[in-house]
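Hi V.,

You were right to ask for the full record rather than a summary. Here it is.
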Amino acid sequence: MPDDVNKVSYATSFGAPFLPKEQQRQAREFLPRFQHLSVREQSAVEMVRAYTGLTAQLVCDPTLLFTAQEWLDIQPERPVAEGEYILCYFLGNNTKDRAFAQRLRAATGCKIVALLHLDEYIAADEGYADETPYGVGPGELLNLIRHARYIVTDSFHGSVFSLLYRKTFFTSRRVAKEGLLCTNNRLDSLFDTLGVTGRLITGDEDVEECLARQLDFDAVHERIAELRQASARYLKASVE
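Predicted structure:
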């Protein structure tokens, strides 16, 4: 793309805590061609500075540009699942996640509604849930989150929408170790920026202790609103 064309990045994610040497070289070569650089993680701000000397703007994930009410526009009116349930939304294959959800079911009496085999066939998905809806698109997923009593997930966006809909949720790390496939920094940055505590689990925790943890959703939503407004201002100024 010609250098005189306005180039804007919005909420770019590196998807890893560091870049290999060849990609560092590419970052040094290509990122300075952008007139406006923004990222969604504090670690990415630091990576851009380290690799290019540039300062990237920290903005919210695109899904947070809309309010919980605005996201209703794409959802079914009726609940996808009936009754009191624990929604399990796992992309990884950590068996401790499923075991934690089963202990949560025993403690609360809520059934488990789980989305299975989302990226690939996962043996750990077999046999632990009470209901396993299929044909679930983005609108149906948000509906399931909105109507859930509890949510257990290893998904960044599962955590985002749990916060938007003020749900009691618990998030595990999909990849335990730091490395090129690790996306833990996305969750860490999200929670640190919004002041979220007590939501990350390993899967070994005592369920009753986890249920006793409190989260000030009013304070979290105030921070979301501030970040949303600042991000919208950045985006508008970048394209004008």
